[in-house]
Specification:
It contains seven helices and seven strands, in the order H-H-H-E-E-E-E-H-E-E-H-E-H-H. The chain has 224 residues and is α/β, with parallel strands linked by helices. The strands form two sheets. A five-stranded mixed beta sheet has the order 1-2-3-5-7. Strands 4-6 form a two-stranded parallel sheet.
Length: 224
């Protein structure tokens, strides 16, 4: 059942006009009293309100300052992150993979370790705004150990089709056979041997500078 609509009409006659004036004055008086009391309350408590506002502002400024300082400190620690070959030799396979991940992060990549069973020739995957995705296969070995061409085949077969990567890199603390280096150069699988690893981990050269990784083309056909 629909409710009847209430419609206001203009007062008619002297009596209705008088009552309308009385009601209007009463509303104005009530509004004035409310404003007066609210003003009185604010005058009483304004020092407390001001103090709370100052404290809140100071707390926010302190929090922001701490966050900025922490970010700068973290960036500075990453900028000077270095690992010696002796440290890399002393670790195990997992430690070697974690170190490569840390080095990629230092160089500006978003990197994660994925090594383990079923990794399909990818121990670390990196993402870069300009350079795209990179797959790293880590081969931690004894000093003097060599990585053969079979590893290059495996990485080349999964980097693009499985991991959707633009760049594939095999990193070892040892060396590569000549066939492995030649095959990698011919098929675009980058390799980092002990000498290059020293430049990357100890000297601080970024991996993309070390290997000359090209930036991915933009949608306008030029490098980003």
């Amino acid at each position: 059942m629909r409710r009847p609509r209430v419609r206001l009409r203009r007062p008619r006659g002297a009596v209705e006009v008088a009552w309308a004036c009385v009601v209007g004055v009463a509303v104005l008086v009530l509004a004035a009293r409310v404003v007066f009391h609210a003003t009185a309350v604010l005058l009483d408590v304004w020092p407390v309100v001001l103090a709370l506002a100052v404290l809140a502002g100071a707390a926010a400024a302190w929090h922001i300052t701490r966050s900025i300082a922490a970010g700068r400190a973290a960036a500075q620690r990453l900028a000077v992150l270095r690992f010696t070959l002796a440290e890399l030799d002393a670790g195990d396979d997992r430690a070697f993979e974690e170190t490569l991940r840390s080095l990629l992060i230092r160089d500006g990549w978003g990197a994660r370790r994925v090594g383990g069973r079923g990794d399909q020739a990818a121990d670390v995957i990196g993402e870069h705004a300009r350079l795209g995705r990179l797959v790293v296969q880590a081969k931690h070995t004894t000093v003097g150990g060599k990585v053969g061409v079979r590893v290059m085949y495996e990485v080349n077969g999964t980097a693009g089709p499985v991991h959707r990567a633009r760049h594939a890199v095999v990193v070892t603390n040892g060396s590569f056979t000549r066939d492995a280096r030649d095959w990698g150069d011919q098929h675009g699988v980058h390799w980092v041997d002990r000498d290059r690893l020293r430049r990357w981990a100890e000297n601080g050269v970024t991996l993309h500078e070390l290997l000359g990784l090209p930036a991915r083309p933009s949608r306008f056909g030029r490098a980003a």
